[in-house]
Amino acid sequence: DTAVSQTPKYLVTQMGNDKSIKCEQNLGHDTMYWYKQDSKKFLKIMFSYNNKELIINETVPNRFSPKSPDKAHLNLHINSLELGDSAVYFCASSLLGQGRANEQFFGPGTRLTVL
Amino acid sequence: AQKVTQAQTEISVVEKEDVTLDCVYETRDTTYYLFWYKQPPSGELVFLIRRNSFDEQNEISGRYSWNFQKSTSSFNFTITASQVVDSAVYFCALSERWTSGGYNKLIFGAGTRLAVHP
Q1: Residue A88: Cβ within 10 Å count
Q2: How many CB contacts within 8 angstroms connect chain A with chain B?
Q3: CA–CA separation, B38 vs A109, rounded Å?
Q4: What residue in A sits closest to B44 (Cα-Cα)?
Q5: What are phi and psi of B71, to 5 degrees?
Q6: Does residue A9 contact residue A109 with C-beta atoms inside 8 Å?
Q7: Rounded Cα–Cα distance for residues B98 and B20 (Å)
Q8: A46-70 residue pLDDT tens
Q9: Which residues pair with A112 in a beta bridge?
Q10: Fewest Cβ atoms closer than 10 Å to its Cβ: which of B47, B71, B77, B103?
């Protein structure tokens, strides 16, 4: 029944490591997103894919690389992790909807802690 | 420039009080969308409402109501007879047209933390 799922829920790792977060949606949506929520709860979009094509790419270090194998999956790979990458990462999905903004459905979040 | 301002960082009320969460936005577009999301202590983000810029009719859903005023660029959210389960961080967000022609880029405000005490 889970609409947008993310794995893992928690990720604790050392600085310099490479890690991935996976996201899957079963809502039949064509667009997926990655958001970062920092320690002050501020939410900011990082990337968006529509039908496996990158359509939003905010000012994010190129250590972050999203990959969308199909429109139901959007993974986030992070190289050379830094302390400042510690945050909660949310995946979301929606229908793109030309000429309108559809609501985005969010996953449960992945709390990344870099030591 | 910050486009969505939620000036109230934290609000504390006692159960059954009414509470209004303020949201002021800034945009040069004539067509845009506004959203409210709730983030309870469990951490997930829950969609509450979407409003487009051409629909200024206020909306009520149970104890929740929203007041959209284009003249003051505000989209305020009122909870009537608050309950402990309303305790959460509430986010207002703006979606305006951007380069690809879509409206799917959400810009969030900083959030308002609401604590409802018994």
Answers
A1: 19
A2: 72
A3: 14
A4: A108
A5: -60, -30
A6: yes
A7: 30
A8: 998 888 888 888 878 899 999 999 9
A9: A11, A87
A10: B71
CB-based contact B33 A101, cutoff 8 Å: yes
- The two tokens of residue A55 are 């359509």
Residues in CB range of B105: below 8 A, 6 or more apart: A45, A48, A56, B95, B96, B98
Dump pLDDT digits (tens) for A7-29. 999 999 999 999 999 999 999 99
The β-bridge relationship of strands B10-14 and B112-117 is parallel
Residue pair A20/A79 in contact (Cβ under 8 Å)? The answer is: no
| B54: closest CA of chain A, how far (Å) | 12
What are the structure tokens assigned to B34, written together? 């506004």
Give the pLDDT mean for B5-17: 97
Backbone φ, ψ for residue A84 (5° rounding)? -70, -10
Strand order in the sheet with A19-25: A4-7, A19-25, A73-78, A64-70
Which conformational region is residue B6 in: left (phi greater than 0), alpha (psi within -120 to 50 degrees), or beta?
beta
